[in-house]
Design brief:
mainly alpha; about 0% strand
Length: about 290
Amino acid sequence: MSFLRVLKNSFLPLLWISLCIYFSGCTNVDKNECRKIHWPTQGFNDGEEGRPSRLSMFLTKCSVFNLPVENAAYLEGYDKGLDKFCSEDSAFSRGFQGLQPEKVCDLKSNYTKSYNLGVQSFCSTEIGNKDSVNGKSANVFCGTKSKYYAGYLSGLTQFCTYENGFKNGFEGRAQITICTNDLKSNYDNGFKNGRNDFLIKDIKRVQNEILMAEKQLRQVKTEYNDKLNRSYKIPEKTEDLALQNEKLQLSKELNELQEKKSQLEQSIFELQKLINANNSEVGKIFDDKAE
């Protein structure tokens, strides 16, 4: 075999693979698929799924096999599919949810109009007020000069109160940092007091759990010792099948009790750590108040 033929046989496949990779995976469309594609349907499906047009990709891949692509048919189908994907209902829904518009729908004027209507509904005074009253962070999508933000600031005066701070703290919720500087002090003081009462209540709850776990642990230890003594009374070497079975059963039960004992001891240890952490936080709260 000549050198040129070897070069041709090895180089051309590599070139083909490189082109395939460059044009985003031509292995996805082979010769038979290029023959079978119904271009209006392919275009409609791509548009309906909200994909960018893939016409240039098909032109690149199918031209390798010298097979034609029906440009106009694909684009006509794509435009119809895109009309379905970029419906006015879909546009309004995305705007109303505070989501960015679909890029492929930029050229659809009805989509843009409906999307803007959705944004106006989403960025309303009422929704801004509702978000802050529910302790949510302001949605930056609407901007600080919108009706939404004006409503949000108004709602903060209802949320950032001493009473609401105490309630959230007492219910064990995380600290919320949405209050503006002029409202922050009242809410934070209420939260600290509520949190303090929550921690004291939680310490008592955990202490009761420790007492119950310690009671169970004592019972397990007593049962373990009883079974261990029974096991010792059975000779190590005995031909009595009943005694052999009893010793095996006792050995199994002793292992289970030992495991249960370890679990209870670990549980008591973790509960005590929780009490220590709660006590530490209570002390910090008192230190903050003293300052």
